[in-house]
Design brief:
Elements lengths: L41 H30 L5 H10 L1 H7 L1 H18 L2 E4 L2 E5 L4 H7 L9 H28 L7 H41 L9 H5 L7 E4 L4 H14 L2 E2 L9 H16 L7 E5 L1 H7 L5 E4 L4 E4 L11 H5 L6
Parallel strand pairs: 3-4, 3-5
Antiparallel strand pairs: 1-2, 5-7, 6-7
Helix pairs in contact: 1-2, 1-6, 1-7, 2-3, 4-6, 6-7
């Protein structure tokens, strides 16, 4: 089911996996944990620190204001209200939206990090799942990706806190203003909003600078028209009568490129980078194809793509062989206009490892 291999690491919010400028990357427990990366970016981290400090200060001030209200209260109602606010249950009752977001975030975090809870390259503990639970969570396979909604919620929370910070600064500057002081107060209010705007702009610029190396790599990859990874397939010039590709290759990049070519040609293929583990089914089908080739009953409408091992097994089968990038393909009939590989050329082919 692969559950546990693709889970998120507890350092995910601060782990750029070496893709950014400021934080070069932290260790992972396994290679597949990259599926659960949710790096916030240095800009969000900085403004998040500001938001946390603001929230702490706001809580302290609210507590002090409530204490003053209690001292001046005669019936004790304010004291009861303050006491309820200080309890977890009271906070839940008075903040239903915040409570819902916290609960959802906690659930998503648990789903993304379990059953193997890791920090960096250390396994903290593992939770044994029953077969029933594995069947359910195995539907999603890459459970580490459930950390992404939590990352989005953090973005929204930071934006919300900065808006509150701006309003708080403005209200503090406005208090006690009247009469001839209104003009001066408006200037002070503008200063409060400008202060928040400057903080946000600094963080946005920091975020863009942090992600610049990654953005540059993406630009270089996609700024021009997309082309297949393997240009030699276009040079192969497969005639229209061919309908299928049978791939005996495990190289992921190679298979994706070949699938792109088959799609352009309106052909089919037996293998691709599937999101589910059907390697066993593909292997069984490939055994049948190998048996057909060795039994001189290969399909005339199929192009067979071999790796080193399968080529060694079929090189004396009578197929016609052609070089296709770092591989060899074979057909029952010769392809007109294409030169077949000589024995010396076939021996020198460098197959993907």
């Amino acid at each position: 089911y692969w559950v546990g291999d693709f889970c998120a690491n507890l350092n995910t919010f601060f782990n750029s996996n070496g893709r950014t400028l400021f934080l070069k990357g932290l260790p992972l427990y396994g290679e597949f944990q990259r599926e659960g990366l949710a790096y916030l970016g240095m800009g969000i981290i900085l403004v998040g620190v500001v938001a946390v400090v603001f929230e702490i200060v706001a809580c302290v001030r609210r507590h002090g204001d409530n204490r003053n209200d209690v001292d001046g209260s005669s019936d004790g109602s304010n004291e009861k209200s303050m006491a309820r606010e200080r309890t977890i249950v009271g906070w839940v009752i008075t903040h239903p939206t915040g409570t819902s977001l916290v609960v959802v975030s906690v659930i998503f975090v648990l789903v993304s990090v379990l059953p193997t809870v890791t920090f960096g390259d250390k396994l903290l503990f593992a939770v044994p799942y029953s077969r029933t639970v594995l069947k359910i969570v195995g539907i999603f396979r890459s459970n580490g990706r459930f950390i992404w909604p939590v990352m989005y919620m953090i973005f929204m929370w930071v934006a919300y806190e900065m808006d509150r910070f701006g309003n708080s600064v403005s209200n503090k500057l406005k208090n006690g203003v009247s009469g001839s002081e209104i003009v001066e107060a408006n200037d002070r209010l503008k200063f409060g909003r400008i202060l928040v705007t400057v903080i946000v702009l600094i963080c946005v610029v920091t975020q863009l600078v942090d992600f610049y190396p990654w953005l540059r790599r993406k630009y270089r990859k996609f700024h021009k028209e997309y082309a297949s990874y393997i240009t030699d397939w276009d040079e192969l010039g497969v005639p229209e009568e061919y309908e299928h590709f049978v791939i005996f290759q495990d190289d992921t990049t190679y298979r994706i490129a070949l699938a792109y070519y088959t799609q352009k040609q309106g052909m089919t293929t037996n293998s691709f980078y599937f999101a589910r583990g059907i390697e066993g089914l593909i292997e069984e089908e490939n055994k049948k194809h190998m048996a057909d080739i060795m039994g001189n009953s290969a399909d005339e409408k199929t192009v067979y793509v071999f790796d080193r091992e399968t080529y060694e097994a079929v090189k004396s089968s009578g197929l016609h062989f052609y070089k296709c990038e770092k591989s060899v393909c074979g057909t029952v009939n010769p392809i007109e206009g294409r030169s077949e590989l000589t024995e010396e050329e076939l021996e020198s082919v460098e197959f993907p490892e």
